[in-house]
Amino acid sequence: MSNNITNTKVMVPMSQKIAFGLGMLANQMFPAALGIFMVVLVENLGMPSWMWGVLFFVPRIVDAFFDPIMGFISDNTKSDWGRRRQYVFVGSIIMGISFIIMWQLYRENSVTYNFIFFLVMSLIFHIGLSIFSVPYVAMGYEMSDDFHERTSIMAISQWIGQWAWVIAPWFWVIMYDPAWFPNADTATRTLAIWVGLVFMLLAMVPAIFIKSKSTKFDDTLKPLTVKTIGGSLKEILSSFKEAFSNKPFRKLCIATFFIFNAFNTVAGFTFFIVVYYLFNGDTAAAGIWPTLFGCIGALATTFIVIPIVAWMSKKMEKKTAFLISQGISVFGYILLWLLFIPGKPYMFLFALPFFAFGIGSLFTLMMSMTADVCDMDELASGKRREGIFGAIYWWMVKFGFAIAGLLTGVIMSAVAFKAGAPTQPEGAVTGLRLFFSGVPICGTLIAMWIMWDYNLTEKKANEIKKELVERKALAQKQVDQI
Q: Considering Cα of 108, then 112, then 115, then 116, what sign does the dihedral take?
């Protein structure tokens, strides 16, 4: 599926891909650690499930609605650093410091105090995450205009980023091992400091090492100021509407929403299913099995899924690679229902390589396809709006994450599961297991149906690229004649 355009592509240096990937490691470690630590709120600090749902939902909704504004600001920034790098740098600092403070919770405080404290700091953390992640993702879209090189960039970044999901599950072992800490809430206070500092520094790497051109004298940009805020907000809404009216992009967003939302709705149940179904509520007996679920799944994604998906995307259309990968993940979710067997916890490990194809392929392919859509948008609008498109795409991701957090609490209440209780009401754990497999299967099948007629093919993408190159050459020729 190549032609003269792709044969003359400019390869992005591996050092730049790695720098971008280290930012992805930070971008994934913070939510990975957050998901692990959240168990402490109900297991050790006594928060009811409705509070847990609110703490998942509210900050992510605020974050999601801040993203398009951040995308517009990033797209229209005039500076010697270019449009993105300064925000990545500042956002990483806000994100790291607020993450540390957010987890300084003590069981001696009232549940209400801990709830309000965590909610406020979580709002600050998620705003910092938005300031970092929106321009960071846009940097990745800008790194190459080649159809396959984009997939390579995203595959490498996801490969590096997946190590967050290999590392983070081991926090469960540290948190619940009395040889390390007397209790899990003490553990999270300490671990949060290390996570915050180390991954704040890694988040800064793209801002420091990825090259960008100065936009200080670019008169096509319209920076957001106090004087222009009214017109800018109107343009943000207009850009949002224009971007979402792009049919291929809309399909990417909605499909991602269903897959990611379904996955995260039930992801928090893993710990409870392993402990209460496989080990009858005995956390000590469960040992490292909850950790192995996340760790082995992430290793399968890193060493099996991402290389296979990157290879598939070069041998077939990206859409086809997506459909095959998600079909494999549906089979994996079915296996998880069958292979959670009390007395034989090792059996669920056989399902993980299949299960990992769902989320493991999602962002590798979808981020590459979003970069293709940005070219399509430039051809129609004459503007480069990676920030807006990245913001809207991640708005859907974060909105889905917020909905998932709320649904997690609703499902736990609906099946009458009581976290921290030595025994569970009859049917509660079975209910969790039904949702654990059923919700992702339904979400994935809906996403596959949505993407079935996605039509931004490699041939079409290369035709768009050729027309953009010719348009820019003509514009430059006209400038030279003047």
A: negative
Res. 7: pLDDT tops 60: no
Cβ–Cβ < 8 Å for 259, 366 = no
Secondary structure (H, E, C), the chain: CCCHHHHCCCCCCHHHHHHHHHHHHHHHHHHHHHHHHHHHHHHCCCCCHHHHHHHHHHHHHHHHHHHHHHHHHHHCCCCCCCCCHHHHHHHHHHHHHHHHHHCCCCCCCCHHHHHHHHHHHHHHHHHHHHHHHHHHHHHHHHCCCCHHHHHHHHHHHHHHHCHHHHHCCHHHHHHCCCCCCCCHHHHHHHHHHHHHHHHHHHHHHHHHHCCCCCCCCCCCCCCCCCCCHHHHHHHHHHHHHHHHCCHHHHHHHHHHHHHHHHHHHHHCHHHHHHHHHHCCCCHHHHCCHHHHHHHHHHHHHHHHHHHHHHHHHHHCCHHHHHHHHHHHHHHHHHHHHHHCCCCCHHHHHHHHHHHCHHHHHHHHHHHHHHHHHHHHHHHHHCCCCHHHHHHHHHHHHHHHHHHHHHHHHHHHHHCCCCCCCCCCCCCHHHHHHHHHHHHHHHHHHHHHHHHCCCCCCHHHHHHHHHHHHHHHHHHHHHHHHC
What pLDDT is attached to residue 259? 92
Nearest Cα residue to 153 out of 167, 138, 168? 138
Q: The pTM is what?
A: 0.73
Distance CA 56, CA 58 (A): 6
Read off the pLDDT of residues 206-259 as tens digits, 9 standing for 90 and up. 988 887 776 666 555 565 554 555 555 566 677 677 777 788 888 998 999 899
d(CA 217, CA 78): 7
| pLDDT one-digit tens code per residue, 48-87 | 777 877 787 788 778 777 777 787 787 777 777 777 888 9
Q: Which residue has the higher pLDDT, 197 or 314?
A: 197
Q: How far apart are CA 255 and CA 377, in angstroms?
A: 19
The pLDDT tens digits for 132-171 are 988 888 887 777 777 778 778 888 888 888 888 788 878 8
Query: Mean pLDDT, to the nearest integer, of 302-318?
Result: 86
> What pLDDT, on a 0 to 100 scale, did the predictor assign at position 104?
92
Query: Phi and psi of 110, rounded to 5°?
Result: -70, 155
Contact 352, 296 (CB under 8 A): yes
Max CA pair span of the chain: 81
Q: How far apart are CA 140 and CA 371, in angstroms?
A: 8
Query: Residues 478, 480, 482, CA angle at the centre, nearest 5°?
Result: 75
At 375, the amino acid letter reads D
